[in-house]
């Protein structure tokens, strides 16, 4: 559609009624925030997967766990979530061993420390996912609200005309439908990203859970 046409996209946006323009601005803001979180979360999850893979390689290489723990403790932010979970558990285990603890009771502290760190890391990974879920579910309805208002406004304008024609009602209906289109444009990427990132976070969660159980088994063999 040419820009000079009466039904060009720019013309429809400019000539839209104030409520419809307000709906469009809200949807535009939701879309911008959604894409911001989509890109930032994509980078965060890629970094988390890479850091988890590197730590697993280091951990299962068979080196001294105390040396690995010291290396992680100096630069915790660079080693990732799983490394911080390991660091929390290893730190508590060392404290319990120095306090002359014995038996399975020595594992209670490391278990609680790793679970607490695990929960904090999962909360961090899941940040902003609620916004994507809300954007995906709410945006179409916001767009529909703009569409209903625009169509109602267009038909109300026909009441002052002696002869209603398609040319007279088309611009109002077209501007109203744009609100629905913008709502879908904001909702679809948010839903796709939410589903994909939730699946990736679930896979990371399973890896973290499995590591905690395996690491506790290793510590249990050391206290026997």
UniProtKB/TrEMBL annotation:
InterPro entries: ExbB/TolQ_transport (IPR050790), MotA_ExbB_proton_chnl (IPR002898), Tol-Pal_TolQ (IPR014163)
Ranges that cross the membrane: 20-39, 129-152, 172-194
Subunit structure: The Tol-Pal system is composed of five core proteins: the inner membrane proteins TolA, TolQ and TolR, the periplasmic protein TolB and the outer membrane protein Pal. They form a network linking the inner and outer membranes and the peptidoglycan layer.
Membrane topology classification: Multi-pass membrane protein
UniProt lineage: Bacteria, Pseudomonadati, Pseudomonadota, Betaproteobacteria, Burkholderiales
Keyword Cell inner membrane: yes
The MotA/TolQ/ExbB proton channel domain, residue ranges: 82-208
Originating species: Parapusillimonas granuli
PANTHER family: PROTEIN TOLQ, TOL-PAL SYSTEM PROTEIN TOLQ
Location in or out of the cell: Cell inner membrane; Cell membrane
UniProt name for this protein: Tol-Pal system protein TolQ
Protein family (similarity comment): Belongs to the ExbB/TolQ family.
Highest taxon listed in the record's lineage: Bacteria
Stored NCBIfam families: tolQ
Biological role: Part of the Tol-Pal system, which plays a role in outer membrane invagination during cell division and is important for maintaining outer membrane integrity.
GO cellular component: plasma membrane
A GO BP entry: cell division
Keyword field: Cell cycle, Cell division, Cell inner membrane, Cell membrane, Membrane, Transmembrane, Transmembrane helix
């Amino acid at each position: 559609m040419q820009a000079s046409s009466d039904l060009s996209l720019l013309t429809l946006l400019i000539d839209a009624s104030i409520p419809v323009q307000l709906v469009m601005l809200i949807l535009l803001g939701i879309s911008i925030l959604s894409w911001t979180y989509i890109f930032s979360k994509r980078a965060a999850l890629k970094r988390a997967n890479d850091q988890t893979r590197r730590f697993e390689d280091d951990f299962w290489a068979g080196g001294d766990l105390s040396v690995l723990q010291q290396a992680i403790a100096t630069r915790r932010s660079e080693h990732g979530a799983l490394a911080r979970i390991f660091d929390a558990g290893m730190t508590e285990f060392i404290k319990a061993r120095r306090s002359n603890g014995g038996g399975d009771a020595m594992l209670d502290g490391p278990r609680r420390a790793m679970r607490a760190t695990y929960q904090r890391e999962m909360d961090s990974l899941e940040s902003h996912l609620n916004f994507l879920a809300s954007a995906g579910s709410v945006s179409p309805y916001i767009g529909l609200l703009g569409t209903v208002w625009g169509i109602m406004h267009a038909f109300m304008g026909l009441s002052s005309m002696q002869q209603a024609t398609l040319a007279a009602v088309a611009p109002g209906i077209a501007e109203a439908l744009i609100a629905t289109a913008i709502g879908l444009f904001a909702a679809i990427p948010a839903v796709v990203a939410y589903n994909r990132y939730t699946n990736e976070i679930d896979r990371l969660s399973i890896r973290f859970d499995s590591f905690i159980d395996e690491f506790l088994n290793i510590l249990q063999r050391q206290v026997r």
